[in-house]
Amino acid sequence: MSVKIDSVFIHGWAMNSAVWQPCLHQLPGWIKPLCIDLPGYGASVDVDAGTLDEYVEHVAQQITRPVLLVGWSLGGLVSLKLAQRYPEKVSGLFQLATNPKFVQDSDWQTAIEASVFEQFASSLEQDRVKTIRRFLALQVRGTDTSMRTIRELQRAIDERGLPRIEALFAGLKILSRTDLTGAVQQLECPVTWLLGEKDALVPLELADSLKQMSSNADIQILAAAGHAPFISHPDAFVDSLEQAAKRL
């Protein structure tokens, strides 16, 4: 393509923007990436913010023209909320292994139980490093590429350092309390959802719910992938992202 597409990448809980580096090398030259660290993480470790709205403002301030927003997990909530609040800044959404409502209730079954995040919050008070390691293991549970994926996730943490404990608690609160199912139905920009078949944090059944909520969304399921498909299946991820960018 002769037209360059600006793309902003937003990482997930406990991670930082270094996690994107391996797959960025595979992007075509016409996709121009910008990787942003959320408040309390990586290069933004000293930024004080603790709510989803504050996260959205932090990212929005760094976007000067319409972009393709790539949001992974917690980053998917940030990108979805940003697209709702600042539609002029978003030309398209690429929602990666994320859920508009991560915790299930009587009206929303395609999510995980609240106890998952409650357990992480409880153990976080005791041992931040051990809790993050448990979370990395959960991301690859049931997949065939678990050790390689965990090594890449850990490498990103080692490269930029541990996130602030306050940021970790804030992220868990956002994940457990946010409901953006209404935002999904209001989106006007093109949206792609890439879900992992074996994701232990985002149930596969979410695909059916999304189809009912957003008839125009492109919903894809990556076979054998867990919660970090851009690491475990980089070729498929890049191909999906490239196709999404071409549709803008």
Note down, in words, how this protein is organized.
The chain is an alpha/beta fold and 248 residues long. The protein has one domain (5-246): Alpha/Beta hydrolase fold, catalytic domain (Rossmann fold), CATH 3.40.50. The chain has eleven helices and six strands. The protein has helices at 21-24, 52-60, 74-85, 114-124, 128-139, 146-160, 165-177, 181-186, 206-213, 229-232, 234-246, and strands spanning 5-10, 31-36, 67-72, 90-96, 191-196, 218-222. A six-stranded parallel β-sheet has the order 2-1-3-4-5-6, sandwiched between helices. The chain is globular, with a radius of gyration of 16 Å. The termini are close together.
| Second-tier CATH architecture | 3-Layer(aba) Sandwich
Distance between the termini: 12 Å
Number of discrete helical segments: 11
CATH superfamily: Alpha/Beta hydrolase fold, catalytic domain
What is the CATH third-level topology name? Rossmann fold
Which radius of gyration do the C-alpha atoms yield? 16 Å
| Main structural class | alpha/beta
Average pLDDT:
95
Helix-strand layout with pairing:
Layout: E1 5-10, H1 21-24, E2 31-36, H2 52-60, E3 67-72, H3 74-85, E4 90-96, H4 114-124, H5 128-139, H6 146-160, H7 165-177, H8 181-186, E5 191-196, H9 206-213, E6 218-222, H10 229-232, H11 234-246
Parallel strand pairs: 1-2, 1-3, 3-4, 4-5, 5-6
Overview features:
single chain, six-stranded parallel sheet, Rossmann fold, alpha/beta
